Every structure is written in C-alpha cells, then in structure tokens.
Amino acid sequence: MAFFIVFLVSGPLYLATATRKAPAAHSSPPPYAENGGPTHHRPPEDPLPYAPSEHIKPASSSPVPLISLATMLISFMGTVSTMYFSWRTDRRTARESDLKVIQMQQQIVELQTKLISGQNAVSSSDPS
Questions:
Q1: What is the pLDDT of residue 5?
Q2: Close Cβ partners of 1 (under 8 Å, ≥ 6 residues apart)
Q3: What is the dihedral of CA 8, 11, 13, 19, to 10 degrees?
C-alpha cells in the first residue's frame, strides 16, 4: 500500500516539474552599480527561472500522463478487488468456524444426554 501512495504522490510531482527547466546560468558577468559593486538583483533581460523549455513537450502532447493515469487506475482496481476477495474469504471462514462451534455444542449436549441416560440406566438396574 505504501508503494501505491508513493506512486500517487510522485507521478503528479514528476509531471508538474518535467515541463520546467533549471535556471539559466549567467554567461556574462553581473552588472555593476554606480559605486563599482555588483548588484544583487536580476537584470530584467534574464529569463525567469523554471521557464518552459522549447525542448520539452508540454504535458498535453505527451503520452506519459495518460499512461500514468491508466497504470494508476489499473493498480487501484487490482487493489480493491484483492481486498474485496480477501474480505469475502475471511467472512466465509468466520461463518464456517461459527458453524463448527455450534456443531460441537450440539455434540456436547448429545454426549451429556447419553451420559446421563447411561447413568440412569445403571442406577435403575443396580439393586442397591
């Protein structure tokens, strides 16, 4: 079950991050302020980090989300059916054990009646 939860969490996270790229490295030195020190802000001409890349297909045109969804649904149906059949088996086993207990109780009652009737027969035939 833990594998199923990890699959549910990691699949969407992968899809969310697969269409983005890492920030571009600066090829030119950072700009300098009037006093000669480097500025600590990003110049406006730099691309934003994690901007969509031209080399990576968007999620809508990739078959990965569809395959991932189909795999998730099939795994879910398999898990549910396994749990259902296990539940049925456990219920049947419990019912059988209840019937065995009832049968044993009936056998005990029969043996007690035979024992009592046997003792009564012995006591009635004994002249003392």
A1: 66
A2: 79
A3: -160
Look-up of token digits 């300098």 = 32
DSSP letter at 126 equals: -
Q: Is 97's pLDDT higher than 90?
A: yes
15, 56 in Cβ contact below 8 A?
Answer: no
Sign of the C-alpha dihedral computed for residues 120, 121, 123 and 124 taken in this order: positive
- Contact between 51 and 20 (Cβ < 8 Å): yes
Mean pLDDT, all residues of the chain: 75
Under 8 Å between Cβ of 56 and 19: yes
Against a cut of 0.70, is the pTM above it?
no
Stated length of the chain = 128
